[in-house]
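Quick one: structure for this chain?
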Amino acid sequence: MKGLYCKLSDVGEVKFVIQETSLPTAIGNHQVKVQVKSCALSHVDIKLCADLKLQREHVPVGREIAGVVLQVGPKVTFFQPDDEVVGILPLDTEVSGLCDVVLIDEYNLVQKPEKVSWFEAAGAIKDGLRAYTALHTLARMAVGHTLLVLDGASPFGLLAIQLAHYHGVKVLATAVSPEDQKFLEQLRPSVARVIGVWDSKVVLVDSCLEETGGLGVDIVIDSGVRLYEEETEIKIHLPHKHDIISLLGVGGHWVTTEDSLQLDPPDSRNLFLKAASLSFLNEEVWEASRARQGRYLHIMKDVVEKLSTGIFRPLVENPVPLYEATVSMEMVQRRQLRKRVVVKL
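Got it. Here's what it folds into:
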């Protein structure tokens, strides 16, 4: 069978190739054989794989899957054949999620509710996990807090907004284009304020302080930050780190996706004066400790439950056929698309 893999060239360029692969003939004690019905294509963090010594000639692509259980290992207790499941392949997986059949540990899967489509399940499971990690685990979200979600119209940003609304949090969000702003303004429940950072006349800090009566926001979730004043074409809509620190309220919490964030002593001093804190969002960390496995599964179960009840309404562009997976993945990796989901008929 064929799968999609990422290949790093000698000059550091990332290429995506379809190649033949095969599964082991024997199934492990706690493994589940799943027939893949849908697979989400998200940006591949090549640097993270290198840091964890997981880099190899071909890195499997497409880890967010939904499908039907074909066979279970002798010690599997959570599933049985014909169960519909959704889950995330581990970072060290050797098989692509776009393969017809995958082997995955039972502790990386949860039951898929009947109401949830294959498309929604694969498209939302990882973004839902990220939203829970950011808001519950890192930021300790509570009723009455004010949250700023940067790039609120992204698949992750939208689920963070919906999770915050569910818990009684006031939400502000930024839009990086007029289309995103229109989309966010039409959300129900409504966002308290949509800040169109695509408009050079709009000042993010002033908008947040105005909306909070000068007190600042309790939680900020960024989608990357500018470390230097110079604006690049890619980062032109990203706030500077000083902006985020300035709009944080007393006791505020900044959750960043910027893995190379560098704070100077004046930045740290400003955070200290506000008794504010900083956390790094890396949802892959759940698999780094077995002690966290139960909570990891609990979060994934809650994500699919909220999909089933309509609390989570994911934003993923139309599904693509398997033959378009390579081109779609290249566009996702270059940030020309936010996410794609391949659905198999």
